[in-house]
């Protein structure tokens, strides 16, 4: 267990223990295990641990190129199908002519029902439609009880036709960054093309998120598959850490959402 922990952050240890318990459950029962929705960093950790077993892993988020996905851990004899992931998609019906819907408003209203964030997948918003993914286990509860976003009355209807699913093609550009360390202030300075002092100010001002959580520690170290958002500058993904240069700088491939 100690050897596994050393590859990840200290604060990720509870999640690592959870993944280890999933692996043991599948090994003991020889039956598939379905997780809740996991973000890219959580899936990276899960894949890293499952890879050291004789089990297989697959993931699905309901939407094409989903960011949040449910993961199925299963023995090699098993052949998973789409139904195994138990994901329901819903479309929000609201007075579009008079109201614009924001991601934060919709998520906040869903969470106010007392359901954990891990039960929800991606939220997709376009000018024509608003849709979200949810675990099938709580879908009926959502269908009945989700009736309001802020002061706006809403209703939800299941998305049953694959052609009606919102397909938002996100475009990312990749760039190699040569940096002195993986500290958050160093990475933000490189992304924002600003000084370390300016980067530290952004972090202290709670304008930087890593994996959807505000991080206010400049010395926090980023890892592969982390998602960073810097208010006023954009959203980024740590794609790969590719070793060091002759001058002992670190090569990091980072994607930027266009």
Quick overview of this protein structure:
Pfam families: S4, YlmH_1st, YlmH_RBD. This protein is α+β, with helices and mostly antiparallel strands and 258 residues long. Helix content is 26%, strand content 31%.
Feature tags:
Alpha-Beta Plaits, alpha+beta, globular, Structural Genomics Hypothetical 15.5 Kd Protein In mrcA-pckA Intergenic Region, Chain A, six-stranded antiparallel beta sheet, Ribosomal Protein S8, Chain: A, domain 1
Strand content range? 25-35%
Tell me the span between the first and last alpha carbons: 40 Å
The second-level CATH architecture of the largest domain is Roll
Q: Which CATH C-level class of the largest domain is it?
A: Alpha Beta
Number of helices: 7
Which outline best applies? globular
Q: Give the count of structural domains.
A: 3
Number of strands: 15
Helix content: 25-40%
Radius of gyration: 20 Å
Order of helices and strands: HHEHEEEHEEHEEEEHHEEEEE
Q: Low-confidence spans: pLDDT under 50, at least 5 residues?
A: none
Biggest sheet architecture? 6 strands, antiparallel
- Derived structural class: alpha+beta
Give the CATH H-level superfamily of the largest domain: RNA-binding S4 domain
CATH topology of the largest domain: Structural Genomics Hypothetical 15.5 Kd Protein In mrcA-pckA Intergenic Region, Chain A
Overall mean pLDDT: 93
């Amino acid at each position: 267990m100690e050897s596994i922990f050393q590859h990840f952050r200290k604060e990720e240890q509870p999640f690592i223990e959870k993944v280890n318990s999933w692996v043991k459950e599948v090994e003991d029962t020889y039956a598939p295990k379905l997780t809740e929705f996991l973000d890219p960093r959580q899936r990276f950790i899960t894949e890293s641990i499952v890879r050291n077993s004789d089990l297989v892993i697959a993931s699905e988020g309901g939407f094409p190129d989903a960011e949040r996905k449910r993961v199925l851990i299963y023995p090699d004899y098993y052949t998973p199908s789409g139904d195994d992931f138990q994901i329901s998609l819903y479309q929000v019906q609201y007075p579009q002519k008079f109201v614009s819907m924001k991601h934060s408003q919709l998520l906040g209203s869903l969470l106010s029902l007392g359901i954990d964030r891990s039960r929800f997948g991606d939220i997709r918003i376009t000018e024509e439609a608003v849709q979200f993914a949810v675990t099938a286990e709580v879908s009926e509860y959502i269908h009945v009880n989700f009736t309001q976003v802020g002061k706006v009355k809403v209703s939800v209807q299941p998305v049953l036709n694959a052609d009606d699913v919102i397909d938002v093609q996100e475009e990312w550009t990749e760039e190699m960054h040569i940096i002195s360390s993986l500290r958050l202030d160093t990475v933000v300075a490189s992304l924002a093309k600003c000084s370390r002092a300016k980067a530290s100010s952004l972090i202290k001002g709670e304008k930087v998120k890593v994996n959807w959580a505000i991080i206010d520690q400049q010395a926090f170290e980023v890892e592969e598959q982390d998602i960073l958002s810097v208010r006023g500058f954009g959203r980024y993904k740590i794609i790969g850490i590719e070793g060091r240069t002759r001058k002992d700088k670190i090569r990091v491939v980072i994607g930027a959402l266009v």
